[in-house]
Amino acid sequence: MNLMAEIIIQVIIAFLAGSLLLGLHRKIMARVQKRPGPPIVQHLIHSLKFFFKETAIPKTVSKVFYIGIVFILALIWIVGVIVGPVAHGSLLILFGVYAVYKIVEHNSGSSSGSPYGKLSCVRAVLSAATELPLFAAIVFVYLVTGTMNIGEIIVYQSVHGPLIFTVPLAALMFFMLIITKSPYSPFAITKDKVLISGFETEHFGFLRGFMNFSEAIAWYVMLWVFLTIFFGPLNAVGYLIGMIVITFITGFINATTPIFSPNHSVMTQITIGAICFFGTAIMIFTGVVA
Amino acid sequence: MLDYMIYILAFAVGSILGLLYSYKQHGEPFVADSKLNVLALVGAIVGWCLAFNAGNVVLSAIGFLLGGFVMGERPGYGRKETAIGLLLAVVLYFLLNLTV
Predict the structure, then answer these.
(1) CB pair distance less than 8 Å for B72 and A16
(2) Nearest neighbour of B9 by CB, restricted to A10, A16, A41
(3) B5: pLDDT confidence band, cut at 50, 70 and 90?
């Protein structure tokens, strides 16, 4: 198939699947809390609705940044789709996508001129503790497989079995990232309700539509990468079941866990990351991992 | 991947149509335990069985549209119908694909 057509199809799939999974996430959280919850398709409807809403731009914003940042956000997650599901490219580029996402969170908050956005921007810097375990997980995957290329990691797993059984603690580190990025997460200090919607507070209309679009793609890409690098070669049904199961697990965790204060959030992430890091390092260097 | 995009699009469109239709039919406050709707039940069974077992992109897409229509009904409606439809579709899938 033509590469451009493949990219467009994969981005549409990522947006629709991501939106439906985020809708499912809300539904699960609601059912755990004994509420009826919105329909599963609600997140998708919200995202589409925002594109037709009036876009108001506050006077306090830094306009170029304020508008440009949402396009950069959408663009980096489209790059995520291209590097992951389309090209089966390098994990390092995906790590770069997460690093840029952190900068986007930061600038989105600071460009709005709102005190809520600015506080969220400061917390985005603190919550870099999320990305460090991700980098460590990628390094361990490299140490075991000898490659950063997703396609080659899939081939490695088809021969040696899924990496979740080889480096489970590295998978746990990656799973921490998934929990952190899931909606209403105990670690989502940048979107704490104390800050209204955090760095998204001052983005309205189609700008918010782009943010929802990116959120949906981000969720899909994150789950896709996790399933691909730790659960070996999967077919479409395997991905579907895996994504639904992870969404269920995060929904249950988030529905029953209050949000941490920023220092508790960072310390918890660093503690879990450190335990998993040293645990995996010991496993690799003592020869437990072949 | 085009077929998967068509399936997921059909499911999403079906869900949105189901939600709109359901709100037209039921304007009352949330009902925790709705009665089984025979028409929705038939839609769910036909839809999910087609979606999983048709082996044809167009028929499967119609199946996802129907399944999505019932599943996408407003909260409280279409749950039992969806559960029965999905269960029958999975059973039918194993019956058709299991080789002894």
Answers:
(1) no
(2) A16
(3) very high
DSSP A90: B
The answer to whether the CB atoms of B15 and A9 lie below 8 A apart is no
**Residue B52: beta bridge partners?**
none
User: What is the distance between the alpha carbons of residues A237 and B7, in angstroms, rounded to a whole number?
Assistant: 13
pLDDT of the residue at A127: 75
Q: Where are the alpha helices (DSSP H) in chain B?
A: 2-25, 38-53, 57-71, 79-97
A9/B8 touch (CB, cutoff 8 Å), yes or no: no
> Scanning every residue of chain B, which has its alpha carbon at the shortest distance from the alpha carbon of A6?
B1
Phi, psi angle pair for A90, to nearest 5°: -85, 140
Single-letter code of the amino acid located at A185: S
Give the three-class secondary structure for B10.
helix
**Interface contact A10, partner B, CB < 8 A:** yes
Q: Which residue has the tokens 């279409």?
A: B78
Residues of chain A with pLDDT under 50: none
Amino acid at A164: I
Confidence (pLDDT) at A255? 93
- Cα dist from A113 to A14, A22, A74, A107, B39, whole Å: 32, 29, 21, 11, 54
Which position has the token pair 């199961």?
A245
Q: How many residues does chain B have?
A: 100
State the Rg of chain A over Cα: 19
- Round to whole Å and give the CA distance between A121 and A163: 35
* Joined tokens for residue A200: 């998204």
Q: What's the pLDDT score for residue A68? A: 86
* CA A65/CA A266 separation, integer angstroms: 28
Secondary structure (H, E, C), A220-237: HHHHHHHHHHHHCCCCHH
> pTM of the predicted model, to two decimals?
0.91
If contacts are CB pairs under 8 Å, which of residues 233-272 in chain A contact chain B? 236
- Residue A225 and residue A229: Cα distance in Å, rounded? 6
